[in-house]
Specification:
Helix content: 10-25%
Radius of gyration: 20 Å
Order of helices and strands: EEEEHEHEEEEEEEEHEHEEEHEHEEEEE
Shape: globular
Number of strands: 23
Largest sheet: 10 strands, antiparallel
Number of domains: 2
Distance between the termini: 48 Å
Length: 296
């Protein structure tokens, strides 16, 4: 990895802004395998031990944060005090299409200096590296669309192309632009040496990825699915897509009349290469092929 004296990051020699619209698909639970876990939870009920089990999890987080106050999670007719519930699924196969809806607009970067939540100056400002990668119409430091911009962290051993292709990155929001200093305040503190890329929330990617994913799954099966489960981020609703429930429409277009159960949520649970993960601004569509049964 080459050192970039102009940015305060070490950057890869070749930026890859074309890394976009990757459809992440995976097959879960063949008939003789361990069943996946349909998982529903309140955000404050998550813990690593529950998430990181051997079986793949997929499902949703609620949009609230006080499950004791609202009695939001129920199972077998009872309120779940722990704020989460799950059901094992067996007897068939779920194929998942996962859309992250992001575009990588930079190459891999290495954080070299921070102060708490702020990316600091080195030889030049992090703000400059971000602005240089944005579309021209978005390059106003005083009016950046912060809701669309993220620092995406990746494993140093994974590499940018693989991380984007497999959806294996964590989004860290940009909270503030310090234009005078040329620095950025993030929603989390990053350690020096962390690998990141600049990510732009991208409507075309969010539209294209579900279509590609569902089409790829359809091509691999001779029969249609029996039903589907769909969990989309509340940020991917009609407001983002110009008045349509786009993710649901994709399933309806490919499989007219298919029963679909799901909803909008505050976070999406999905198995990625390397383990179960909590996603954001994503859609997880699980298509069920013959004889799936529930064990809760």
């Amino acid at each position: 990895m080459s050192r970039s004296a102009a940015t305060g990051f070490a950057s890869s020699p070749e930026a890859r802004p074309e890394l976009a619209a990757h459809a992440v698909t995976t097959a879960l639970a063949p008939p003789d395998g361990a069943g996946p876990r349909l998982s529903l939870a309140m955000p404050d009920a998550l813990d690593a031990a529950w998430l990181n089990i051997a079986q793949p999890r997929f499902g949703a987080l609620a949009t609230g944060d006080e499950h004791h106050a609202v009695s939001a999670v129920w199972n077998h007719g009872k309120w779940q005090v722990e704020g989460r519930c799950e059901a094992g699924l067996r007897g068939g196969q779920f194929d998942l299409a996962i859309s992250r809806g992001m575009q990588a607009i930079s190459g891999a970067l290495e954080v070299t200096d921070v102060d708490g939540y702020e990316l600091l100056l080195a030889d030049a400002a992090p703000l400059h590296t971000l602005l240089s990668r944005l579309p021209v119409e978005l390059r106003d430091a005083d009016n950046l669309p912060l809701g669309l911009l993220f620092a995406a962290t990746i494993d140093s051993g994974t590499g940018l192309e693989r991380a984007v292709a497999e959806g294996r990155y964590t989004l860290v929001p940009i909270l503030a632009v310090n234009a005078g200093a040329g620095t950025l305040t993030l929603g989390a503190s990053l350690e020096p040496g962390t690998q990141i890329f600049w990510a732009l929330r991208h409507r075309l990617s969010a539209e294209t990825e579900p279509r590609r994913g569902v089409a790829q799954i359809q091509e691999s099966h001779a029969t249609p699915p029996e039903f589907a489960l769909l969990f989309s981020c509340i940020g991917r609703g009609p407001y983002f897509f110009g008045g349509t429930d786009h993710d649901l429409a994709v399933l309806n277009q490919h499989h007219p009349g298919l029963p679909v159960l799901g909803g909008y949520c505050g976070g999406e649970i999905a198995p990625l290469t390397g383990g179960n993960a909590i996603l954001s601004y994503s859609a997880v569509a699980a298509l069920a092929y013959p004889n799936v049964q529930s064990e809760s």
